[in-house]
Amino acid sequence: MMADYRSEKRVKLIIRAVSAWILAVLIFFPILWMTLTSFKTELQAISIPPLLIFEPTLENFTVIQERSNYFSYAFNSLFLAGFSTIIALALALPAAYAMAFFPGKHTKNLLLWMISTKMLPAVGVLVPIYLIYRNIGLLDSLVGITIIFTLINLPIVVWILYFSFKDTPKEILEACIMDGTSVFQQFIFVLLPINLGGIVSTALLSFVLAWNESFWSINLSANDAGSLATLIASYSSPEGLFWAKLSAASLLTCLPIVVLGWFCQKQIVQGLTFGAVK
Amino acid sequence: MATLRLENIVKRFHTLNEDTIKNFSLDVKSGELVVFVGPSGCGKSTLLRMIAGLEDPTSGKISLEGSDITDIRPSRRNMAMVFQSYALYPHMNVRENMAFALKLAKIAPNVITERVEKAAAMLNLTAYLETKPKHLSGGQRQRVAIGRAIVREPQLFLFDEPLSNLDAALRVQTRIEISLLHKRLKTTMIYVTHDQIEAMTLASRIVVLNNGTLEQVGTPTEIYHNPDNVFVAGFIGTPKMNFFQATLSRMENRALTLKVADQQTIEIGRDFTEVASSLKVGAPIILGVRPEHLEVISNPKATAVKNKPTLTATVDIIENLGSTSYLYGTIHSHPMANKTQSETKENAKIKEHSKIKTTSLAKENPKSIDPMLAETRTHALPGLENQISNQNAITVRLTGDPATLAGRDSVSVVLDPERVYLFNGEGKNIFSKVRS
Ligand SMILES: Nc1ncnc2c1ncn2[C@@H]1O[C@H](COP(=O)(O)OP(=O)(O)OP(=O)(O)O)[C@@H](O)[C@H]1O
Ligand SMILES: [Mg+2]
Question: Which of B102, B191, B285, B409 could form a disulfide with B159 if both were Cys (CB 3.0 to 4.6 A apart)?
């Protein structure tokens, strides 16, 4: 009996491990293929059967830098993700503080309403926003796109910070009040240090989401304020598809954020699980 | 040291449609340790938080040393609070925790160091000054919280159930430490607890709260010996006071005759002249006796006890706690006692054998109440059902060796006429009416 149970457990474990690996490879394959393609010539890229062994070339990358100035797009991405995150935090921290520690009758509804805006298809408001932006001259401007990025991430940022603050016992805040702190001092001396993990992970998440955002940047920006997402898109449109260059642009877009994600894995997971993993 | 005055405090939370604190007034004298005690949810914390300024009263006035502080911010009230969950700052070590308020108040660093180290020495925390709270035990954390209050040298200390997260042994020890601290500092303290033992042992005066209203204020001795009403009588003292439903069947100046549980008649000899006018024959009375004021006697016919009021009770279970023991029983209520007696006898034996307790405490037998009596009960005792839910259960503290009672199905219990409490239909102590 014992032995049976043990071998049964082992078999189950093997099945689980194999399925996990298959799934992982399936998910990872497109990324691998993209990486390989970015080092091929355009001809190699479309050859059938696909080439696995070839002589790698850096030609695509130099072309991208020459033709579209990769670094200018990279700068835009950095600017947009950075500033939208900073502004979102500046707005969300006080909002989350108020909602977590001084909830009113409708705080729960407000939270739901905020997150529900994320359930709306973005394309539904594209036309009005496009028109507004055109009329006030924010199209293809870093300021305009930063505002949009801030607004689309704000609900998530408030939401995560709210739960992070909610984990902080209210009595600690009351002890602060009894000790004579101002609201600002409560933030600086107590709330920020206690919730540093949650705040950092929220910031990272917001940064990553803004970096990856493509819908709004493709539709509202071009050369001046375009992010790396628009750079990728530019290789798929007017003059037909260039697989190798498209892949190279994609790789250049993904790489920084994959590296960032790699180093901050723990923080991001903590943010997404609302601080449950410590 | 300070005198604190609360005048007509009312608190209503906007989410509730009832006042949480109902017209509460209290004077706290300088140097007193006043304990607020009451069941969970009665509003003790709310009251304390209003004194601290963490909550605003809906109406009423709070003054400290004669000056109105109702609308003064918490940090300006010169009070320090110790929270149930300690509420230490997790990212600061013990020293920083204690020094935080002083730093904010811009007190000179050398004064801060001096005060922190003095408090740490007083609380046995010197070795832990550089330790973070998460590496401390519960008792140590609570002492840090107390230390954080001490260093501020406040006029008033506020404690909200500071011991309820500690284990039993530590709770007793910390309770004694708080008592010593009060002796030493002589600062006015307000202490909230739902534990009546803490209230009795710590308090200069106890404030008994129930459902947002003040039931009684007094020294522990006053509260214990002269409870104003059934609620206070039942809340203070362990085990709980016994309550029996009774009817006044005869009244003289020096004796009352009560029919207890519609069955047993007892005569209580005592001077009733003062309260006679408020009593009338046929009126419902709640008879209250503490378990420690009852005595089991072996021979009810003996002359020494012949004239004392005596109740007969079946034995349900005897709990031996070592130093004392308690008898839990039921007083006969059924008119045909003989028949039920044999049943209960059987029960008692089984219970004693298998050492099952509590059943007798929770036992309720509504069918045995005859309709007439049930009628009087519901009319006479609105709202008192909670306090006297099982009118026929009796608890007796045994003085002798409980083994002598082994095998007994039924015992005679003598009441001390000077130590019984009589409450009227509204649950008021008939003697406290005279006093007030
Ligand atoms: N912020 C609040 N909003 C709404 N209702 C509240 C609030 N604080 C307390 N109450 C309500 O007021 C009542 C009294 O609460 P309070 O905390 O003062 O009770 P307590 O006597 O301290 O009880 P416990 O012994 O359980 O701590 C409760 O019914 C509680 O639900
Ligand atoms: Mg409380």
Answer: B191
Q: What is the DSSP secondary-structure string of A124-150?
A: GGHHHHHHHHHHHT-TT-HHHHHHHHH
Name the minimum distance, in Å, from the CA of A54 to any CA of chain B: 56
Could you tell me if residue B235 is inside a domain?
no
Q: Are residues B22 and B165 in the same domain?
A: yes
Q: Distance between CA A234 and CA A253 in Å, rounded?
A: 13
**Does the beta-carbon distance from A179 to B101 stay under 8 Å?**
yes
Asked whether residue B275 falls in the same domain as residue B213, the answer is no
**End-to-end Cα separation, chain A, in angstroms:** 39
Please state, in angstroms and rounded to a whole number, the distance separating the CA atoms of residues A12 and B378: 66
B81–A193: do the CB atoms touch at under 8 Å? no
- Lowest-confidence region among A80-94, A125-139, B101-115, B372-386: B372-386
- What does each C-alpha distance from B98 to B104, B160, B179 come to in angstroms? 11, 18, 21
Beta carbon of B218 within 6 Å of any ligand 1 atom: no
**Whether A156 contacts A118, CB under 8 Å:** yes
Alpha carbons B241 and B196: distance in angstroms, whole number: 13
Domain CATH code at residue B124:
3.40.50.300
Distance B83 CA to ligand 2 centre (A): 10
Domain count of the fold of chain B? 2
Helical packing angle, B94-104 and B109-122, nearest 10°: 140
A contacts of B90 (beta carbons < 8 Å): 172, 194
Residues B251 and B384 in one domain: yes
Confidence of residue B387 (pLDDT cuts 50, 70, 90): low
**Secondary element (H or E) of residue B210:** strand B205-210
In total, the C-beta contacts within 8 angstroms joining chain A to chain B are: 53
The pTM (predicted TM-score) of the whole model is 0.79
Complex confidence, ipTM: 0.76
Domain that holds residue B188: 4-227
What are B89-117's pLDDT values in tens digits?
Answer: 999 999 999 999 999 999 999 999 999 99
- Give the position of tokens 């070592």: B322
Interface probe for A, chosen from B46, B51, B54 (most Cβ of A below 10 Å), is B54
- Whole-number Cα distances in Å, B198 to A182, B174, B201, B219, B237: 35, 11, 5, 13, 11
Regarding whether B246 and B221 lie in a shared domain, the answer is no
How many other β-carbons are positioned within 10 Å of the β-carbon of residue B233?
26
How do the domains of chain A map onto residue ranges?
Answer: 2-38, 69-272
What is the fold, at CATH topology level, of the domain defined by A69-272?
MetI-like fold (1.10.3720)
In a domain, B416, yes or no: yes
Residue B207 and residue B269 in one domain: no
Q: Three-state DSSP class for B82? A: strand
